[in-house]
Amino acid sequence: DIQMTQSPSTLSASVGDRVTITCRASRDISSWLAWYQQKPGKAPKLLIYDASTLESGVPSRFSGSGSGTEFTLTISSLQPGDFATYYCQQYNVYWTFGQGTKVEIK
Amino acid sequence: EVQLVQSGAEVKKPGESLKISCKGSGYSFSSHWIAWVRQMPGKGLEWMGIINPDDSDIRYSPSFQGQVTISADKSISTAYLQWSSLKASDSALYYCARRRSGTYDPFDYWGQGTLVTVSS
Questions:
Q1: Which long-range contacts (CB under 8 A, 24 or more apart) does B8-11 make?
Q2: Mean of the pLDDT values across residues B16-22?
Q3: What residue in B sits closest to A47 (Cα-Cα)?
Q4: Do the Cβ atoms of B62 and A1 come within 8 Å?
């Protein structure tokens, strides 16, 4: 099994802040990594795939980087609608999610 | 418009059986694998298994192998997740999701979720 570890678990930030979330894989997954956003009571939404490709319709303030075992999701300027929980997911061998990072209002 | 519409919330007793559904529309249902994902109350996302609706090839997560059964009927564009004997610990929100077609793929469209409550 490939384990995915996100940090931090919770992040307090203000509107306009630059926010970075880290995801580490237990072994090399190349660039087979996605990021999802989930708001309370809603299904997850795909933001980024292949580590750095923005899904259609997703604002450009979201970006992803990394390869191998270390990845980051960056929100360049946090907007009110961005307060949510974010999950990374590897799809190199089956599928595994990180435990999630909750971005809350500071 | 691609849509995955799941069946409604269920309240069951321990030991009962259950089958929930996920109906796809707006795309060729047979061309994309359908995954099931569990989210326990206040917790994260867990991949349970995935089915190719075209030939019913199924892969289960080791954590869920033997605990649930995944199936699909491509003639009605519907995938299923079923339990033969529910436990209280099966209480959770269950999502279906479409795997983007390719060799390595994330899940690009999700159903709205089906809440399953198991209580005596």
A1: B8/B114, B9/B114, B9/B115, B9/B116, B9/B117, B10/B114, B10/B115, B10/B116, B10/B117, B11/B117, B11/B119
A2: 98
A3: B108
A4: yes
Confidence class of residue A23 from pLDDT cuts 50, 70 and 90?
Answer: very high
The rounded distance, in Å, linking the Cα atoms of A82 and A75 is: 9
Q: Does B100 touch chain A (CB under 8 A)?
A: yes
| B95/A45 touch (CB, cutoff 8 Å), yes or no | no
Q: Which residues of A touch B112 (CB under 8 A)?
A: 43
- Using an 8 Å CB-CB cutoff, list chain A residues near B106: 34, 46, 49, 89, 91
Q: Which residue has the tokens 């339990």?
A: B83
pLDDT digit string, tens, across residues A42-57: 999 999 999 999 999 9
**What gap in Å lies between CA B116 and CA B10, rounded to an integer?**
5
How far CA A72 is from CA of A8, A68, B82, in Å, comes to 11, 12, 36
Helix (H, G, I), strand (E, B) or coil at A80: helix
**Cβ separation A95–B59 shorter than 8 A:** no
Chain A contact probe: residue of B36, B63, B104 with most A CBs at under 10 A? B104
Share of chain B above pLDDT 70, in %: 100
